[in-house]
Amino acid sequence: MRHSQGRLPNRTDVPEPRAERLAVVAAQDRREYTTQTHDADLVVVGGGLAGSCAAITAARAGMRVVLVQDRPVLGGNSSSEVRLWILGATAHMGNNNRFAREGGVVDEVLVENTYRNRDGNPVIFDTILLEKVVEEPGITLLLNTAMVDVEMADTGDETHRIAGVTAFCSQNSTRYEITAPYFLDASGDGALGFLAGAAFRMGAEASAEFGEKFAPTDDYGHLLGHSIYFYSKDVGHPVRFTPPSYALADLSEIPRARSFATNVDGCRLWWIEWGGRLDTVHETETIKWRLWQVVYGVWNHLKNSGEFPDAENLTLEWVGTIPGKRESRRFEGLHMLRQDDVLDQTQHADAVAFGGWSIDLHPADGVFSEKPGSNHLHARGTYQIPYRCLVSRDVDNLFLAGRIISASHVAFGSTRVMATGAHGGQAAATAAALCLREGLLPAQLLAPDLMAELQRELLRTGQHIPQHALDDPDDLGRSARITASSEYVLGSLAAAGAPVALDVDRGQLLPLEAGPVPQVGLRVDVAAPTTLRVQLRRGARADDYTPDQVVGECAIDLEPGEQLVKVDLDAELDEPAYVVLCLLANPDVAVHASDLVVTGLVPLRHGGDQVADDRIGQPGLEFWTPVRRPAGRNIALTLDPPVRLGPPAAVSNGVDRPSGSGNAWIAAPDDPTPTLRLTWDEPQVVGRVELRFDTDFDHAMESVLYTHPEDAMPQCVSAFTVRADGRVLAEVEDHHQSAYRLVLDTPVTTSDLTVEVRGVHGNAPASLFAVRCYSDPDHRIVRDPGRETAIATAGLP
Questions:
Q1: What is the pLDDT of residues 99-128, one digit of tens each?
Q2: pTM tops 0.85
Q3: What is the C-alpha separation between 77 and 417, in angstroms, rounded?
Q4: How far is 427 from 444, CA to CA, in rounded Å?
Q5: CATH code that applies to domain 1-10+32-207+328-468
Q6: How far is Cα of residue 602 from the mean position of the Cα atoms in its chain?
Q7: Could you tell me the sign of the dihedral formed by the alpha carbons of 93, 102, 657, 711, in that order?
Q8: Bond before 777 cis per omega within 30 degrees
Q9: Cβ density class 276-300: b for 16+ within 10 Å, e for less
Q10: 733/717 Cα distance (integer angstroms)
Q11: Which CATH superfamily is domain 476-486+646-774 in?
């Protein structure tokens, strides 16, 4: 029987009350705690976002997983105990990383949270993440359970290998002995790797070691500190606050105290940070107490200084009881990611994940520093994370996930954020499943054929790897003829609503075909005689969204009034690519916009620049960033000749998001019954159908504190029907996720499969990124009940 912590108990799981009214237990010399043993395929230590996503991934791949979490809730820094928003490569939509939200399990969690919890309640987020874990029957979840010891295997040689771990739950006074062939450390501080003797680093490398120009000086400090957040609430009547005796009385020590405001709390006060000059593992309690002093001192200042009359009705609703940690140990893997990997967007043969947060370093003195609270160094776009960073170099059955992966202090400034860590956790867990199936050690997956298989498995489950497309020999859809009832050919985006002022440079992201650029028509309102400057820009690659290459431009003289203008850019593209139609700022001009939302089209604004600074290796960039809905609307335009945006064949190209092209079938907006059809010359046995939908991978979906304009993304299909030779296989309502998987109880033999779209959540044409068909009804990496034999061949415990 599974341990009761593994899933929420059903009524039949609850034991009957004991009949005894009194238990009398005689004295003994000493007693032992109750001990339970577990044998698993994979032990995941740490139930933060990385560990939770890794456990879910491994269980879905067919592994038996024990997830050991030392807190009462899952999620780590994203949980209601800390309340930091989840973010990764989307970077609050503040840089040039388009369509960059992480895929796979972490995307599933974020999409579900936005759907149920668009106002960002951290307690609701707790329930969603816990639900995802307990729904997996392959996971035994041990909450409030700290790993306290490690048993190393006797390998008979100089290799180091973990045989088992010991954990203890203070809530049920139970000790757990857990064995497995594979272990994954997602504990944040690297507790498992530390006890197993794995090599690690703590602090910043000197600039000379990896040639990192952004490496900090001693004056700046070599570790990032912790933060504690607080929430306030307006209760509608005056509230008195008497500070505790330990509250910081003199805020003159805090240079940024002058910027406090009553309308800012929670994660937006991330800069209430301290501890970077202490041991951020062993002195965490010291750091926590100092941060409590600061938080209560800040609140006393807001309530009692007399400078904030609008604070009269505010109460201190919540203060974190544990700090949000940024940095402690980083473990040495088979490769150490470094500044050049991030900024040069290095291509790795073993790429399994990606990042895109800036290199974000903070002064070690935190809130007490005179320096800016953070320093950011942005790359042109996303960068790959290689598998070698997720494997310990000296404990040969240990995977690494979360903020402890193998990266220099500088590169860690980017990889440390939670969505990036979770994405890597999924990759490590998938690798563990392949190792289990093949009886291999983690490092052996670097063989080219095995690495290709790992990347294929990740892409199958929705994990995005930049510059990689799924080449799936098992997908029957690749041999089908793919047609549709219609496809979207962009000839015009109709104007609706108020025009948008060109108060800043504005742009429209468009995927265009190779060849001459179409003539563009714009409708504008002009206040005074002026000249409108228009440019067409692109990046260095088809999927590079830093538009610093001008491929065409023109200047158009305008007279006052509303008018249609023709823009002849006299430009040609040598390959299909994303481009930006740039309308440079002009206070006398407003451009008409459209309410239609279209897969792969994004309205942009010039949101500032990153000035080149060779002293720290900083590239010069213009940021052309999205405008969040509802304010963000596409520019109304015409294209002559029209551009084909949504060909049906795109659903079989192996890329499940825009990347260099739209990569989607998009139906015509006026198609009453958008339908995609796959036909084969010979009947096929279909046991499983997998669909991929557009949930706006450009939307950041911060998990807490931020609010979102919609619960379901407007581009996402809401209702659809799947048929085989006219027979209904599934009718789905209220759909909102990126992925849908139809597993048939009985496979069907068919030469025709259709997906009919019956609804879309917003004002958007129907679209699909992928339709895949398989004979195998339920693909799992690990399905062999005799897998212990394979493990033994590798000499694993």
A1: 999 999 999 999 999 999 999 999 999 999
A2: yes
A3: 10
A4: 15
A5: 3.50.50.60
A6: 20
A7: negative
A8: no
A9: bebebeeebeebbebbbbbbbbbbb
A10: 9
A11: Galactose-binding domain-like (2.60.120.260)
